[in-house]
Amino acid sequence: MTTETPPSPAAGSTLPAAPRIFSGIQPSGAPHIGNDLGAIRNYVALQDRYEAIYCIVDYHALTSTHDPEMLRQRTREMSAALLALGLDPERCTLFVQSHRPEVTELAWLFTTVTPVAWLQRTPTYKEKRQNQPEDVNHGLLTYPVLQAADIVLYKASLVPVGKDQAAHLELTREIVRAFNGRYGETFPEPQAVHTEAPVVLGTDGARKMSKSLGNTIEIFAEPETIRRQVMSMVTDTQRILRSDQGRPEVCNVCRLHRFFGDDYEEIWDGERTARTGCVDTKKLLAERIIARYAEPRERYLELMADPTRVERVLAEGAERIRPIARATMDEVHARMGLR
Ligand code: AMP
Ligand code: TRP
Question: Is 155 a catalytic residue?
Answer without folding.
Answer: no
